[in-house]
């Protein structure tokens, strides 16, 4: 059996279903978008079986793109959760046949609340279609399965129509990347747009030495600090140099090397630093990579040390 061909046929059938549906989009979509935009409450999505699973994803997409939304299972609604539907809400009911028993059971109660109902179904004359204020028709020539029964093309189209609604609402609300990130603070985009240097920099137990510190003492500080670096300050506690473990290794090659030497002799003077602790961590990473350094020292305007940010910390926190 050629499974590759079967897979290709499945995708082609579902893709053609979406292309056909695109040609059928009409003013009904405008009415749906306007109704949702005028909604002062929440957008509630409901359905059972495969339609319910698709509905849950649609609700999640709405919620993450600026339209307050949640999924309500019809069975739970019949046992008390109808109270979750308010007079200022809008409901989207999903049923390909339009005759799902569980969904049909709650439709009269939704209308009793005078809550606007958008139906997504293949049959506008079905129970769901008749109760709906607006019907988005889910037109499918055939399911992608060999027995033309298992929800495949129909669920794919329903999901895509939900996405289309969400995208329309995003455009209408001028929903930006920063808005999306605010709903996903733990995601990669949220980290990139919201986590600052101040959130990640180390401020305690910093490996600081004075300009008169001997090299042997500096090496001990580097080891204890676990940053691979010692920060050197002057008599006014201003940053004047950095001594890295790499600097120490290079110092060993000096003919006149001595552990009694002043650490400042082998340090990098006037090192790269940053006065803006509110800089985005992602921007700090770019700076670290551009300057080919591992440690960014954060100071105040007088060059007094406030903290340090190590490249390893950025990587561990998923900053990119």
Automatic annotation (TrEMBL):
Gene Ontology biological-process entries: carbohydrate derivative metabolic process; carbohydrate metabolic process
InterPro entries per UniProt: CBS_dom, CBS_dom_sf, GutQ/KpsF_isomerases, KdsD/KpsF-type, SIS_dom, SIS_dom_sf, SIS_Kpsf
Record flagged with keyword Zinc: yes
Record-listed Zn(2+) binding positions: 73
UniProt domain SIS: residue ranges: 32-175
PROSITE patterns on file: CBS, SIS
Protein family according to the UniProt entry: Belongs to the SIS family. GutQ/KpsF subfamily.
Name under which the protein is recorded: KpsF/GutQ family sugar-phosphate isomerase
Species, as recorded: Sulfurimonas aquatica
